[in-house]
């Protein structure tokens, strides 16, 4: 029997990644008793089930308010903070715009983008491939965080003072450059070191 896997996630919202009992019940009911459900570090549910169940499952999850994406080498759902300073102050609208622009798009390797609505950085954006931090009315973008392994690394500041209007184009330009110039399945942190942050800064500023 052919099996398929999808990723399901809640959209960015005040309170974090919230799933309702009804949404979780849909997973259990429609995915079937043979399904495998994994909670990933990306704040997504990976659901593996038979191919014949997948279409109905995806449609039901989307009707319930969840989002579904391919599993594997794509840009993952935006890993955002809980917007504890409030939706307006923490920039929920721009976080959702960024999420819609990048989540599920192809990538040489699975790629994590973090968003924090203030300098507290509770979503740990500096440990993500790309991190965005709201600083009052503008945004700082970081690149190259790597949390795994014995040689972890903190993301480097790429550009600061980015306006709300320029944030999505800047991040999208960096992602496009990575897709175009990565060597095979080159990890993003290694890509940043190879092409240099200075080169990526020019890409982001021109995006």
Describe what this molecule looks like in 3D.
The chain has helices at 21-31, 51-63, 87-90, 92-102, 164-181, 188-195, 197-206; strands at residues 3-9, 36-39, 45-50, 67-70, 79-80, 113-116, 130-135, 138-143, 156-162. Helix 4 (92-102) runs parallel beside helix 5. Strand 2 (36-39) and strand 3 form a beta hairpin. The mean pLDDT is 95. The chain is built from 7 helices and 9 strands. The protein has 207 residues and is an alpha+beta fold. The strands form 2 sheets. It has a 5-stranded mixed beta sheet with strand order 5-6-7-8-9. Strands 2-3-1-4 form a 4-stranded antiparallel beta sheet. It is globular, with a radius of gyration of 17 Å.
How would you summarize the topology of this molecule?
Blueprint: E1 3-9, H1 21-31, E2 36-39, E3 45-50, H2 51-63, E4 67-70, E5 79-80, H3 87-90, H4 92-102, E6 113-116, E7 130-135, E8 138-143, E9 156-162, H5 164-181, H6 188-195, H7 197-206
Helix pairs in contact: 1-2, 4-5, 5-7
The share of residues in extended strands comes to 15-25%
The total count of helices amounts to 7
Our Rg estimate from Cα atoms comes to 17 Å
Instruction: Please state how the strands of the largest beta sheet are arranged side by side.
Output: 5-6-7-8-9
Give, in order, the helices and strands.
EHEEHEEHHEEEEHHH
The helix content is 25-40%
Task: Kindly report how far apart the N and C termini lie.
Answer: 45 Å
Shape: globular
| Biggest sheet record | 5 strands, mixed
